[in-house]
Amino acid sequence: MIKATFLLISLLTSIQFFGIRTSEAEESPPTIKNGNWEIKIYPKTLKVEATTKNNQSILISAGESVQSTVSLNPIQKNEIKLHYPQTQLNVSFKLIKNTLNVHLSSDLPQSVTWPKIKSQFNVKAFILPFHSGVYIPIKNNQWSSYLKGKSWSTIEQLSMPFWGILFEDHSLTYILNPPLYSELQFSNSANALAFNHQHVFTKNRKNNEFNIIIKLGSPSPIESAKQYRKWLIETKQFFSLSEKQKQVPKLERLYGAPHAYLWGALFSQHDVSNWKKFLKDFRTQAEKVEPTIGNRLWSFFNEETRKLVAETEFPSKYFRSTLARNIAEVLKRKDFIVSSDLHHSIPQSLKERIQKNSTLTEGEIHTLNCELLHHAFSDSLNAVDTWGGGISTQMIHQLKAEGFDRWCLTLGDLNSANARPQVARLVDESGYVLGPYDSYHSIHSPTEKDTWETAQFSEELYQTGAIIKADGSKRHGFQKKGYKLSPLVARPYVEKRVNQLIQQVSFSSWFVDCDAYGEIYDDYSKDHPATKFDDMKARLDRLQWISQKHQVVVGSEGGSAYAAKAIHFAHGMVTPYFGWGDKDLKNKSSKYWLGGYWPPEEPKTFFKQSPLHPRYFTFFFDPRFKLPLYQTVFNDSVIVTHHWGRGSLKFSDQIERTTLLELLYNCPPLYHLNLNEWNRQKERIKKHYSFFSPLHRKLLKLSLSEFSWLDKDRSVQKAVYGNEVELIANFSKSEFKTPSGTIKPFSLKATWLNTGETQTYEP
Fold first, then answer.
1. 22-238 carries CATH number 3.40.50.720
2. What is the pTM of this model?
3. Torsion angle, CA of 175/178/183/187, rounded to 10 degrees?
4. Tens of pLDDT along 505-539?
């Protein structure tokens, strides 16, 4: 690739303007105008200025004084065309009403840096779709320091391919089409935030064309999002929830539904009806010489667990959870029972299944082992079909008993429901949805020791399926394990895995990690070459295949705009994952420690509540800098919530603020649940649900039409949905008075504009 921007092409000495001398062209730059604004183009530097109809000056892009050759075609139909012959770059500017269309094309691989966004005297803030959206005042030291030197992919770090500049009386919106091959490069200029947009024309693209659509609009902080939504609708790229529901009717179950990840092993402490009797009988069986279920179980325990069982007089909470965890691990073993030569009489049906052990699926083996354990200790264990902690019929029955008619439930892994298909059946009967946590992003060697189940396919695919970088090396996978897997070659494996799992468990949902996150790649493999366009299409095709083939709702991580047509829900938009590699968050002695992945039935990284480290407050939680940009565009298209590692209750000092934001942004909460956590958090979850769920069902059918601040500090915020429902949230520590009443701190008032009916949520 030729690494050169078209502003840094070569040290040439002349500029050709079809008879116009250089000095004349720069002193009197080509101009196009209409009743909305006038645009001046400086071909030598590609500086672009605009003047609005009320005589306001706008710098659309700064320029650079660099010697270069350029040809200017005669202006026709309000269009200026430029050609740079040394780099075979073409740039055109066309003005239509309030829109300036900028088209770039190149016959050579190169990088193009344009526009260059710098501070201006009349700029108030930058509007960026960083996760759900952020408002960045032009001279804010925290944001300037945070962003300085960073480069953001416009499809990964930006949830939608646009940005905005907010002026006192108007705004500018820059929409990128297509969103791929671009990034924003941040810096400081005159003690204020500045950034450049860079687009790369690569050697493997057949159509090296790119458009930047620049729109003049109102000074609303969500104007850029409204402009982008309008553009999506005009170009037939917007797909509403009502349209998606026609293809997948169960999508309606997400309207008003909180989201939760379910955790639990094959066996939990709640599955024992009489712990004293179970412990006594277990010790008795463990000591017998002849084969028993009890001594077979004992044989797989380590010395520490055996000592715990032998010395315990009273089954404490710690003892119950520890023993249950060890039993659950043994029940997953294929070699738990290898013969029917047991002291206890076993029903013939179980004996026959033991003899078929080698032909049983993993889920069938787990179920058989559970039934054998129950047979041996039937007097002290609950019925097998109720086992499982969070992934259990017990869990679902408790949710139903508390009046919940909607839930979007996801497993913490791929296969934990395989031995309990009755859970998925009960979920479906209850009007909820349940799905596994799946991924096709990474592939590991079958011999990898520290691996995860979603990254396991075959040795052949491991050797041939990796995405290849331009230098010929394989692209490493997540945490540098294995490789990134080409979505083109993964497709048969996707279909095989999904079909097999759905045959075992009647899932009504499916979560595919990473596909909507924005990690899209060029693949320079000789066997499966792909551009980023090909990569993106393959990911969207498989998401849509899962949904349409099996009539399940589909979710993914992130929810980037390119995936909106293929997904129904997304995790990670309202609060994204942050703090990767931060030692304070990983240090057990730090009060900000987020926890590890133990114990498996209740991983601390998800269940442990921690205070938020102050360094992340401004950028991810301070409502004064947040904007509902994503909701403005996709409120009635994609249901979004938090990343699973940053759930609603994760940060102990941010729960009230997070709850209020969920209500204002019309986003469901996200929890991590097992039976223990449900009992701890039940009342809080019920309170939120009673207010949120009816409101969410109403607002999902509307667009977010207005957003504004009602105080100078931007802590009291108003959102209007479809000109029908007004929400006012008070994020401040003081009461806020409105004509219709006072709103307490961290409270929200909903008003139905047609009837005047009001409803208030208070902490």
1. no
2. 0.94
3. -20
4. 999 999 999 999 999 999 999 999 999 999 999 99
